[in-house]
Structures are given as C-alpha cells and as structure tokens.
Design brief:
The protein is α/β, with parallel strands linked by helices. Helix content is about 60%, strand content about 15%. It has a seven-stranded mixed beta sheet with strand order 5-6-2-3-4-1-7.
Amino acid sequence: MSAHLKAKLIFIVALCVGGLGVAYWYCWSFGQYTTYQIETHEPVSGLITDSPVELHGVEIGKVTRIELIDARTVGIRVSVARNAPISKATVATITSRGLAARGFTGYVYVALEDTGAEVGPPVIEPGQRYAAIPAAPPLTDTMDTTVADAVQQVRLLTQLIKSVLDEKTIVSLKLSLNGFQEIMATLVANNERLGSLIANVDHDSREIGLLLDDKTIASLKRTLDGLQDITAMLTANDARLRSLLVNAEIDSRDIRPVLETSNATLKELHTQALPRLYHSLDDLDGLTHSLNGIVERITRDPSSFVRGTVTPPGPGER
C-alpha cells in the first residue's frame, strides 16, 4: 500500500471520527436543552436568532427561530437548558438592553420570570409540537425608540402650535403684550402711590385689629348666641306663629265690614247731622244776642219791663 493511499485512508477515518464526534456532541447538547414555543401579538423589533434567553438575569438558552404565524402573531422558538426551573407560571417578556434595539450599543433578549404559584413543567397541548410559554407585553423602550417617540411627539406638538398660533392669534398676543407693558409702566409710574396705599391698608388693618379686641369679640359672640337663641325660639314656636298670623288675617277680614259701616255712619253724620247742628247753633246764637239786648234794656230802664217799650207821642203829634 502506497503512502498516498494510506494518507487518504487516514483522512477518511479522521473525517468519520470527527463527524461521529460532532453528531454525538449535537445529540448530547440537544438532550441538555428543551424547546419551547412563545407566541406574541406585539412587535418584536430587534429580536434575532441566537438572542439570549434569561431567567432572573441568568442566561439559560437562546432563540432558535422567529417566524410570522399570521398578520398579527409572531412565533418565537427558544431552546432552554433542561435543568432550568421552567414551570406553568413562567412568563416570557421581550426586553431590550442598552441604548438601541440593534447594534453594538444594545440588544433584545427574552426574559423569563415566574408570576404565580403554579408548579410543574409546561404541558404540550394536543396538536402542538412544543410546550408553550405565555408572553407578557414587551419592554423595548430603548434610547432609539424613545428618541423616535420624542421626535414624533415634537412633530405633533409643532403641528398643534402651527394650527393654534395663526396670524390673528399672534397679532392678538402682541396687542396683549403691549397692553401688559403699558400696565407695567403705569404701575412703575405710580409706585409711590401704590406703596402709600399698601401702607394705609396695613394701618387700617391694624386699627381694625385694635378695635376687635377680646371684649368686642366676646360681645359679638354673645350677640350671635342671642340671635341663635331667638332663631331657635322662633323655630320652636313656628306653629304658634303661623296660627297667630292666620288668626290676625281672619280678624282683619272681620274688622273690615265694621270699618266700612263706621265710614258710612261718619259720612252720613258729616253730610246731614252736622249742617243741622250748625244751623241750630246759629239760631241759638241769634236768640242769645236778642236776650242780651232785652237784658240790657231792662237794666237801663226797669220800668220798661212794666210799661213796655212804646214811645209816647211828642208835642204836636197828638
């Protein structure tokens, strides 16, 4: 056998031994890991094959496959160490670490956490190839996504400001600023008057404080207590007051006919009796004057009461 043939045989044997070793290592390593299926309806931007899988911050596996199941569902297949404590309470969260979702400054990984008290490994459902781990909402707020959201918010804010601050609004704001400046100038010009006004107000407040001493406050409190007592008394006698008002209203209605009759009587007395009385008084006054004249005559000439008042005829009248 030539040396060339021996070299070929040695190479083939080495190649077969290496292949068997690789196959054994692959089978051994495959037996050390368990595959789980994760399905999520959230975006998984930045997650790639061979991304790490961590449990409580410790790396226990990696992502082996990412596929789009339908328009809203993403399937993630992970390979996790068989001795990892994965249970029915384990939840997967797509998490980012670093400044960006991709690149040298950051990466996205699958974080596993226990959220309940359920025990036992996940069960493979009928019709499924691998056991499923439920997915929680992702935590991918990295620097790039945050900056993108901030830029979007700034754009929206800019559009809002442009829509609000039109030409008329800007002119109105300028007029308002001018008016405010005029007001400030007026306040500065009348600074002394304002200071004097503040001083007067301070002085008046102090005088009011002096007026409202302890005795005055106590008197006001007693007055308020008295008013409260009166209010309570009126409240307690509310029924009696209402009865009194009703009786007064009834009595006023009963007195009204009497007042109308009295008015008619007074009117009749004024129109009929008083004129007659005045006429009688006039006649009595005339009779009194006549009697006074007779009394005067008798006083001057008592004989006239006997002879009468006939005057005798004078000489030449007989």
